[in-house]
Amino acid sequence: MPAEYSGILLPGLDDQLHFFTRNIPVQGKSVLLIGSGSEKVALSLLEEGCTTIQIITDSEELLVNTRLTLSGNADIKARYSEYGSLDFSDASFDLVFAQGTVSRTDRKKILKEIYRVLKTDGVFCPGEMTSLKGDIPPFLKSVFAANNMDILSSDSLSMIYKAEGFKVKAMKSLDNTLKEYYKETERALNRRLGKMTKEDQKNNKDMITKTKHEINVFLNLGGLKYTGFSSFLLIK
Question: Which structural domains are found in the chain, ordered by start?
């Protein structure tokens, strides 16, 4: 079963963070978090003793939400950045953490940038959606294509990481978290809809329709039979 859910609404829920902090010393480390929705990861790492925490997102809209969520936390910074072109110097971070944000068609470009900004012997912890049964059916491919995602098997991902210079220290399957993730996503959407006016719902129609479709694909149409989620500990 997944670890008790405490609020990280990303694929892998809280389990990826637990996998990371139970295997990698984080106290006194600088960390880069890649992706929107990482605020609770940042707050947890701050409690664990990380000294410098930087969140990046490639969405201007979601950056506003991130900054509002973290207002008053001077030790956590948030900024806009393209993931394939990081605006940081070489060897800037001890740790990089990305939960569900690098499973993209430009994955190799992103990995090169992460490798560059990591210090020697630094650790990268990605969590990625994975394919479980070879060829992904068309109804599922359309969901991934709409999100510019490139979904591969865990073995294929390991080969790609190694080709980019990383050493694979460990891998953990978090497939069992996905059902709860989509259930929690559905609950969160319903709570949000309950607070929206009819005008708000009209203005956000595309987002609402897209999210409902994805939930339906994974919870009701068998998407979870073909899709998993794995996290890795990679050493530079």
Answer: 15-135+147-175+228-235 (3.40.50.150)
Taking the whole predicted model, whether its pTM rises above 0.90 is answered as: yes
CA distance 31 to 12: 19
CA distance 63 to 53: 15
Euclidean distance between CA atoms 139 and 53, whole angstroms:
38
CB under 8 Å to 236, separation ≥6 — which residues? 115, 118, 119, 120, 121, 122, 123, 124, 165, 166, 167
- The two tokens of residue 83 are 């993931």
Residues contacting 19, CB < 8 A, separation 6+: 125, 172, 174, 231, 233
Laid out side by side, the sheet with 30-34 consists of 76-80, 52-57, 30-34, 93-99, 118-131, 227-235, 167-173
Two tokens, residue 197: 């006016």
Provide CB contacts within 8 A for 98, sequence distance 6+. Answer: 33, 34, 35, 114, 124, 125, 126, 127
Mean pLDDT of the residues in the chain: 92
What type of residue sits at position 211?
T
> What's the pLDDT at 1?
35
Residues 31, 96: contact at Cβ < 8 Å? Answer: yes
pLDDT per position as a tens digit, 70-79 = 877 888 999 9
CA dihedral 41, 45, 46, 47 (to 10 degrees): 110
